What does this fold into?
Amino acid sequence: MMDFMSKPFVDPDTAGWSRVKESLEKDNVKLFHVSASDKPELIKYLDNAPNFESVPHPGKFRTAALYRNKTDLFATIEEIVQIADSLQPIPASKPKLCFLITCQGTHYPAMGKQLYAESPVFRKHFDFCAVHVLKEYDIDVKSFLEWDVVPGVVPEWMESPIKFLPYLLALEYALFKQWEEWGIKPDYVLGLSFGEYGAAVFAGMITIEEAFKLIMTRIILMTENIKEEAFCVSQMGMTKYAEILAEAKTAVGMEEMWLDVSAINSPVQTCVVGHLKYVNQFAATCKKHWIKTLIKEYHPYHSSLTKPILPEFLKTTSSIRYVPGTAKFISTVDGKLWETLDPNYFLDHLTGPVMSIGAVETALAEGVTHFVEVGPHPIIIQMVKDILQNNDPHAENKYTFVTSMTRKEDDRLALLNSVGRLYTAGYDVNWENVDKFQGQGGGQL
It folds into this structure.
């Protein structure tokens, strides 16, 4: 889906990022942080830090820097001092934070392998999930984590939903627990498609074991009872979609053509599901208008074609104990806030479209300004940016987006960069636990 996003606005990195991102010794990278009650005091701390010790006490003015060694840190501190006059105090109250939970299609070989090796917290919670999935469903997701990356070779597990989906949920749960360990907790959660199962767990509405029960039952029912159809991502909004569909129906033999809208992701991305011949005709019509599309033969999630399995799936959804959330849950089924879920929720989730625009607009109406995507690679962030840019051309200066992991970046470095950004934005960080994580690296000043 990434190819169908509009041009993103730029998120600033933690100071020092440009120095460390190309380093071959990323396990040595650490995060320096300092705070002070006012700007002169902050500059004094920076000017007089012979031992380069972090100053973590509360303060309105904060800064952070990524570094590998004294030379790195000294150079970055000099740069921060030079622009110190432009530093702004953190907000009087902590900005509202929403966790975005990534959907399927973002998985890749050995995702999370480095973080598993370096973080006891991530490892503990990933292992908990892996043991549970192996015991209950005879799927060894830990073996996928350890898979060797071979260029040009797609591992067998990546093509099997019953394998890659529990792996993805285990990874997202372990990431969530890593953020929690560092003191970063969401006020709101918003999951895209498959990500809603993780969102329900992170909101405290269901347990992780119940989430696995739901997704594994859904996968088995879908693969055993619903044949693969065609899924199409198109670079257009709903108004243009209606026009293209109407034109596609005028082709010979297409009078009975129908498609289900499976997701309204942004003003520039709409996803549809239907029989392959109809989807191919739709894509051909898009091509005539120079509209990008991507077709994949896949099980028809978020469509009326899933209705035959609903009675059986209801047995599982009815066995779950739903409780009120501790974080606010923003639904992509209807775009609204839900205090608690019910047995019908994940039935509607399966048969209806993903209402991303409505969910994001609800988050904005609630005053959310900061978003953290929890998953192996960010994809929802760009959808949110597209929605923001459509509504407000000056949105770039009003919102902050943070990733957990990125496919082509070092896991450890990506997370430390994100911690630095959240800290300087006004979030209180558990530095004792962050320092434990940093201690897994090899470098010392």
User: Anything to note?
Assistant: The first strand starts at residue 30 and ends at 36.
